[in-house]
Amino acid sequence: MDLSLEAPSVYLFTGELCTRSYKLNRFAFDFKYPQVRERFANDPEALMTDYALTDNEKALVRARDWTGLVAAGGNHFNIIKIAAAVGESHLHVGAHMCGANWDEFKQTLPHRVEIMPSDLPALAKGKR
Amino acid sequence: MSRILGGIGIAHTPSMGYQYDKGVREGFDPKWQPWYDGTRPVKQWLREKRPSHMVVIYNDHMNYFDLKAYPTFAIGVAAHFPQADEGYGLRPFPGVDGDPDFAWPIARSLVRDGFDLTFCQELELDHGVYSWLPYLFDAPWPLKVLPIAVNMLMHPVPTPQRLHALGASLRRALLNDGANRDVVVLATGGMSHQIHGTKFGLTNEKWDRYFLDAIEQRQDELVATPVEEIMQVAGTEAAELAMWYTMRAALAVSARTHYSFYTLPAVTGCGVIALDEPEPRG
Ligand SMILES: [Fe+2]
Predict the structure, then answer these.
(1) pTM of the predicted model, to two decimals?
(2) In this structure, is residue B108 part of a structural domain?
(3) The domain spanning residue A110 has which CATH number?
């Protein structure tokens, strides 16, 4: 397992990223409100336009591309709210993140490691 | 001055709450039974300590605070804190009561000490509080809660040193608040877990057990461990563990572990520790 804090292992949600993807995050956050979920079910395109999503963000939502949405700067706690609205749990999102088949993926959880911070220098050396 | 009775560190995760509700309805899932059983001694310890107030250091998960203005440190000064709806409806529990007369002297003292917290007249509590709450107390909740919310989602997040210093400030505030309360300090943060990226589902029992052991007497060693290293070996969301330092620093250095427990039911390490504050001398 790649332990680095770089994509695709990790999409660290930073303030800078949030500034760039603020509209997407505002959109996803608001899925906590039933009226927004209902509007999404009835007319997703109008809702996405109201929240001023970019064409790329709209395409990612249409494709249910959870990984793409997080890579585009969506905070995963926000993005899983959209997933939940279309009947997918955070574990389904996890399978998508790993490019795995859901039924196989859930059998493999959790992914156990036994590495301590003191092991990291040796691991980094081994990689080089 | 208020009396500090002890401290608790405990993991949280949405499934912990979901499994509680399901467990009391139809029996606990075999994977979650150990967590239910393992938290019984903490519930008993609290029953014996009889705290009147509990300071809770926790983080929200995009369930109450939105991104318009995101506080790094926030303190709930209201008389009541409802449960936050995370989008699946409310769980069958009442909100928790706060105590403004307790909260304000603490808030003032923290600001004077250099912690400029955002004052929240309204605050709803998500699974950061509600997932473990029913494991430790029966509703109606038998004590008042003072929530302190920490940004653990949008980097940069506070450093371990800063979270430790917050605990030391909290201790000074409690011991000089002019009040006469019996206080338990609780910090909550998921142990090893990561729920995004290709490291999704990563857990590290070895790290988690080390952490539970070291928090008692080797907190300096933990605080000196860069959060980036914890995120590498135990998953990015394990950064939340740094909030446990606030609880530990609010207790005496000589506080000792009364009980600790660990299990790994799903994709988040679930640990709990209860520390006894030594009796004041004289
Ligand atoms: Fe959390």
Answers:
(1) 0.97
(2) yes
(3) 1.10.700.10
